[in-house]
Amino acid sequence: MAESNRLPGDRYDDGMVVRREVLGADHVDRSTANATEFTEEFQEMITRYAWGTIWTREGLPRTTRSAITLTAMIAGGYWEELEMHVHAALRNGMTAEEIKEVFLQCAIYCSVPAANVAFKIGQKVLAEYE
């Protein structure tokens, strides 16, 4: 990604640090390596704003941010993103029990079918960690 577009105080670098901590270096390296002229600005935008502006804030612990993100992924039916964020939640210090509680909460407020898919994805990710 072109670093020449960055100004002092740009949140991109802070965002990249947090993005790598939360999602893992392998995932971030793949995402940035696979960026094309068409997707490069999107990659920069999510690094700068999602990771550099929101995830760097001190107002919530990362486990809470992960719980909120898991809920949003379930509510929206973003299953590939949910899988990635279950990995991130574990990396952020959430326990399997806490993730299960988020999924149970989502069964009531998002839908039982959505929670059913979430549990399948969560079980797959947790099995990879065992």
Protein architecture, described:
With 130 residues, the chain is mainly alpha-helical. The chain folds into two domains: 10-57, no CATH class; 61-130, AhpD-like (Up-down Bundle). It has helices at 12-23, 25-33, 40-54, 62-76, 79-91, 96-109, 112-129. Helix 1 packs across helix 2 and helix 4 packs across helix 6. The protein is globular and about 45 Å long. The mean pLDDT is 93.
What keywords describe this structure?
130 residues, mainly alpha, 2 domains, 7 helices
In short:
With 130 residues, the protein is mainly α.
Which SSEs are present, and which pair or pack?
Layout: H1 12-23, H2 25-33, H3 40-54, H4 62-76, H5 79-91, H6 96-109, H7 112-129
Helix pairs in contact: 1-2, 1-3, 4-5, 4-6, 5-7, 6-7
User: Unreliable runs, pLDDT <50, ≥5 residues?
Assistant: none
CATH class of the largest domain: Mainly Alpha
CATH superfamily of the largest domain: AhpD-like
- Indicate the mean pLDDT: 93
Provide the β-strand percentage band.
Answer: under 5%
